[in-house]
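Lab notebook, bench 4. We co-purified these components, and the gel suggests they stay together. Before we commit to crystallization screens, I want a quick structural picture of the whole thing.
Request: model the full complex, all chains together.
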Amino acid sequence: MEFLNTNLPYILAGISVGGQYALIAIGYTMVYGILRLINFAHGDIFMVAGFAMVYLSASLPLYISIPMTIIITVVLGFAVERMAYRPLRTAPRMSIMISAIGVSYLLQNCAWYITSGLAKQYPTIPWISESISIGTATTKIVTVITPVLTLVLVIALVILIKYTKIGMAMRAMAKDFETSRLMGVKINSVISFTFIIGSFLAAIGSLLYFTNYATVTPIAGAMPGLKAFVAAVFGGIGSIPGAVIGAFIIGICENVIKMFGWTTFSDAFTFALLIIILVAKPTGLFGEKSTDKV
Amino acid sequence: MMLKISDLKVNYGGIEAVKGISFTVPEKSIVTLIGANGAGKSTTLRTIAGLVKPQSGKIEFLGEDITGKGVEDIVSRNITMVPEGRKIFPDLTVLENLKIGAYLRKDDITDDLNYVFDLFPRLKERTWQHGGTLSGGEQQMLAVGRALMSRPKLMMMDEPSLGLAPLVVRNIFEIIQEINKQGVTILLIEQNANMALKVADIGYVLETGRITLSGTGQELLANEGVKAAYLGT
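Here is the predicted assembly.
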């Protein structure tokens, strides 16, 4: 009991950060599932969502700036696909990957330019920033809200993919573009829709994540983006449940490491874990046997 | 005339796969293109379906020029294709595979589902099974059923007999004739020339991108050249 009392904050933080990684990881895994593209810019879209909130909330009330932030992020995700990936649809896969890296640095550099590289204070969102006591642990309400909200959104997404027409088209396209087109599926619209969902979840993730960490910097997207990507690979890239479970495992492990006082090694541990898992099971926890299209 | 192809030339993979062919598909008929591997049969179908853009020539469907139109446009004109190798969606259930065939339709599809299940009772027993778990013959039935769900005017079929047991092939061809009787025009390409010519009203022989012979199915079956080259008799 004593052990639990001292360590509960770390476990709660782990679950919470796992939920935030999950919301980002879904964007990676869905885009990969359909396009076989690792969208390196996804972490930076998450970062832009952070800054959008900083600048919008400076002059607008929260009930406007929060929806606006979500809309801006979604539009950005849509625009990135439209301008940087779609023209390369028939190009070799490596070209589109390089384009994604380019977009990533473009967004980071723009953010440096606009902010002069200074960390910006993230606005305080009332209620979810308040403190709450769970047992002996005191934490912010956002810590408790995050896993719940994540699970609700994931369930909604799974239902969308399993039971709607566009979800069916997404599953069909994940296997075979050409035959999907022969069925009349407008593949470009479905791809845009995928980016919109990914960016929407990243925007929600950024609200939760930055409320927790309080500042945004131009490289703030890099580490959570990378961790979320690791989570997606860990869970088996292309699989949504895989990405979510992977994200929670990574979030929790990383904080358990901190609990033992090895904070310095928490990132190193995440990547070591990835290497071990991939050596043991190259396709990840829920990965398909072959990820290449026939 | 339902489909009229005039002097169609298509480059595919850097070579001229189709070198100026012309043929017609009358309404409610079964027309077949036969020929060896690499003769340009698949390229011709893929071009009509809008998957490949032609170099020159003209494709007319019901009097309208559809040359170079996109797949979405072609599909919305009730032209459907049963692709080579069936290409059913392995992760979708049998029912979903049929539903996605009706992707562009907004009306009720219950009647069409029942029609497909009447044609292929085997599929009805397996609606909840994943497409990938079906046998080759069942997958071919599913591919045909999926195509029918769009209520096609023209159904193009790319090698439906490929890799199937003779008994299953016979069954598929009976179904093709049955579908045709219901008023669906069929453009069929086949290496199994014997089967194809037996059901076809009109046949064309394609050799290295050119049509070298044409006639009714019966005429071609009796033709000495066709016999020697494609029927192995």
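Chain B is about 35% helix and 25% strand. Worth comparing against the SEC data before the next meeting. The CA atoms of residues 30 and 201 of chain B lie 5 Å apart.
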